[in-house]
Amino acid sequence: MLKGFAVPLSPLATAALTPPPPWHFAGDALAVEFWGDPELSADTLPRGVELDGKGNGHAVALFLDYQFTAQNDEHLDPARYQSRGFAVLLDAIWRGSSIAWCPYAYVDNDAALLRGWICGYPEKIGSVHQTRTFAALSAASAPLASDSRFAAYLSAHGRVLAQARVTLRHKAGDLVGLLDRPTMTRRYFPRLSAGMHDKPAVDELVHLSSDKLVLANLWVGDGELAFPEACGEELDTLCPIKVGRGVRFSFSYSVSDYEILADLTA
Fold it and tell me: For residues 152 and 62, what is the distance between their CA atoms, to the nearest angstrom?
C-alpha cells in the first residue's frame, strides 16, 4: 500500500518530499520595506484582492535563512531541511481587511518548494544568501549592534534578481507597519487536459495560520534595495521607487492549517 502526505507516495512513506504537518520553522530574516508603482503592483493581484490605497504601493522584500522540522526530528537532516528563501509581500485589502499578498517567492530546494505550493506561495527555485551573525566575535561575524551592516541577494539561473543592504541603528520591540499583516495566498494547480488549461483543478484564496510566532533580536535601520531586470522574470516590475526601513530579526513559527477564503473555480 502506498503511503505519504505528499508525492512521491511510497511503501514506507519516507520518500515523500515533505512530511505531514504540523510544520515548524526557525531562522533569521533580513527585510527591507519599499514603495513600488501602485499600478504595476495592482496588476499582480487576483480577482477580489485590491492594493491598499493608503500604502501607495508599500511592500516588503523578505530574505530568509531557516531550518524546518515536522514530527520526526527532520532538522537532523540539514541537507534536506535547511532552506533559504525570498518573498515580496504587498500591502493589500481583502473585503475591507488589511492583508499581505505574496506575488513572487523563491526557495532553494524541492522540499521547501512543495511546502510553498501546498500553502499557496508562488515559489520558484532560486539561490538566496544573506550575511550571518555568530556567537563567537569576529570580523567575519556581523554583530547585532548599531551601525552593523548586513546584505542579502537573490539569484536564479545565473541572474541577480534582488539585492539588499541594511545598516542597523537601534533595537526594537515590534514590527508595527512592516510585517504585521496576516498573509493571504492563492493555491493554484492547473489542468493538463485539452480545452481546460484555463480551468484549474484548484484555485483558492487562503489565509495561512501561523501558530506560536516568536520574533527575537529585532533590529531596525536603514535599507537599500534593488530588483535588477532579468530575462524570464517579472520581479523587476515591482522595483522600488522609494526605500524605507531595513530590519534584521530571528523568528520561529508553526503551520498546521489554513482557511479557505474563496474558491475562484466557482
Answer: 9
Q: Which secondary-structure segment (H or E) carries 119?
A: helix 110-119
Give the burial string for 209-230 (b: 16+ CB within 10 Å, else e).
eeeeeebeebbbbebbbbbeeb
The whole-angstrom separation of Cα 205 and Cα 186 is 5
CB burial class (10 A; 0-12, 13-18, 19+) of residue 13? middle
Beta carbons within 10 angstroms of residue 198's beta carbon: 7
How confident is the model at residue 174, as a pLDDT?
87
Q: Could you tell me which of 32, 31, 33, 34 has the C-alpha nearest to residue 241?
A: 34
pLDDT tens across 207-259, in order?
987 888 999 999 999 999 999 999 999 999 999 999 999 999 999 999 999 99
Q: Check residue 83 and give its pLDDT.
A: 98
* Residue ranges for the chain with pLDDT beneath 70: none
Statement: 23-184+205-259 belongs to CATH 2.40.400.10: yes
As given in the structure block, the three cell numbers for residue 183 are: 498573509
